[in-house]
Amino acid sequence: MKFVLEKKDVSARAGIIHTDNGFITTPAFMPVGTQGTVKAIAQRTVQEIGAEIILSNTYHLYLRPGTDLLYQAGGLHKFMSWHKPILTDSGGYQVFSLSDLRKIEEEGVRFKSHLDGSVHNFTPEKVIEIQRIIGSDIMMVLDECAPYPCTLDYATKSNSLSMRWAERCLNNFNSTEKLYSHSQAIFGIVQGSVFPEIRKQSALTLKEMNFDGYGIGGLAVGEPAEIMYDMIEVTNQILPENKPRYLMGVGTPENILEAIDRGVDMFDCVLPTRNGRNAQLFTRNGTLNITNLKFKNDFTPVDSACECYTCKNFTRSYIRHLFNVKEVLGLELATIHNLYYYQWLVHNARTSIMDGNFTEWKKKQLLQLNGIDEQM
Amino acid sequence: MKFVLEKKDVSARAGIIHTDNGFITTPAFMPVGTQGTVKAIAQRTVQEIGAEIILSNTYHLYLRPGTDLLYQAGGLHKFMSWHKPILTDSGGYQVFSLSDLRKIEEEGVRFKSHLDGSVHNFTPEKVIEIQRIIGSDIMMVLDECAPYPCTLDYATKSNSLSMRWAERCLNNFNSTEKLYSHSQAIFGIVQGSVFPEIRKQSALTLKEMNFDGYGIGGLAVGEPAEIMYDMIEVTNQILPENKPRYLMGVGTPENILEAIDRGVDMFDCVLPTRNGRNAQLFTRNGTLNITNLKFKNDFTPVDSACECYTCKNFTRSYIRHLFNVKEVLGLELATIHNLYYYQWLVHNARTSIMDGNFTEWKKKQLLQLNGIDEQM
To answer: B332 CB near a chain A CB, below 8 Å?
Structure first.
């Protein structure tokens, strides 16, 4: 993996990540494909909407279909027939958020599957082994995502553990080989909750380990957005310029614009897909709930400025009907539109950075996003 | 609407139906789009799999989104963004199979909505009015689909009522105008249960009324397949050569081949879509249930001779995984494959008829379909 920083506009960055499975222009948004599929749309559609990389979840893939099957299939790319880059998380976050029982020790984390209650262990070494089998282009280290709020003491100890785990992940990564024809990269993950000093320390520690890129984790877990933005700033002041920075699990269009402004390069979030399946559609003018009665006779597109398949072919009235009668096509059309909008957002952020007018462009987007009442 | 009979091969027929929204080559299979969407796939995908016409259900559209909305949208084609031909049933069949209460009288049928229990009336005139608003290219008359088994007396009286309703539908059709720019055609429906003499009488009566085409209704409702085939033969001996014949709601690949052999031109059935969503996949070698454990490590396509998006890109193992973890993409991929297979079946039937070797081709297909145990 190679990252080329092409342009800086104040702190906002435009770059390209090169992988053996293709390049990713940044800022990039990664659609979430938890179980080896971006929910409700086919792989060709993910490609059509402009995604250059998807994220998949180690925890879910480990449980189903399992590593044996993934290995037999020749890795996740072949299994799911997605031939562009894939990033996988380490599974840690799902262990902490989904599994019934978990016990964190120095060695790793023991947890019960949310599916059948079976007991499993994730260690730093094991999550690398699993990600070797998955064959993701970018792997993430095992970390503990500290809950919000937590004490300074908890955050300090938790971050220290995450740093030791990061080093063990890196050691395992460096002493093992790729299983398939393409290379794999590994990102460390900055923790430290909402404490600037721990964030700085975390970023410094990982920087010294020299990862291929850096995740910014433990944010968007309940803290105010302003604090999240501050933590991003603090972190990015330490992280090296020549490596990509990935803000994990974030967020709303506004969050993404603010984070790009502070030097973040990569994002993933379930909002466009999950909220889409719950009838919430994102537009340049804010969100709308398509099941609302006011859209019953609305024969205009979801977003008349949008070029996606949904907006070029279908009306709000029709999509509302699909949700109303619980037709699967509603999920597909909403997902297509929302992901297309998110891709539009990061692609246009990139263009404005390259043109040197990101600040202005961002301001305009934020005004439009918040002007929903006047414009809808 | 204009039907051109291009070729006969013994009794099997190849033809073309011309409508203002495009032509339909026959034998034709119509994917079912009950609520203004072919379940689980987008309109462009319906077109891609080769469908030249879809069927939609008057009963469902009448209840949701309702005729007011459909009229405001400019008809169903515009509402759902499907620009090829649409055939609608009359709603009668759903009234008899779905609604809670129904009362059949000379005037029409009174029923309670299966959704909210509200009471509605369908008369021959009303179902034509509804189909005018839907704007289907081919409308069907209101009829009573007699239950199986039923007495000769019941079948006689029921068919007589259906014939009087057919005439009222035709009168209403002839005295009303299309609401949109394209023309509409109307088909009568032959009834008569499993009684040859009533079937003949029904076909004769409708033939004299001179419809644009003829549905063969009241079959595949529980009677043995051989009896269904006999009824088709009896009916097609009476129906005029120069009009299309549509066997309603049928059926399995074998049913379709046998009906084509007896001179049927058009089909619709929920089998490929509904069974697909329940993990049953149709292949040249018979059906398979993709959730079966034996497909867990099967990295071959559903049908290696198939050219559909599903078979060209995904393995049985992956599709099984999708069903196993309840991912929407499983529904889409199964639907694409099954509908593609059904289109393949009728398109190849057509080719073999044009080539004058339908009998031989059909025999080969039936052997293959029944050889599943040896070949899978």
So the answer is: yes
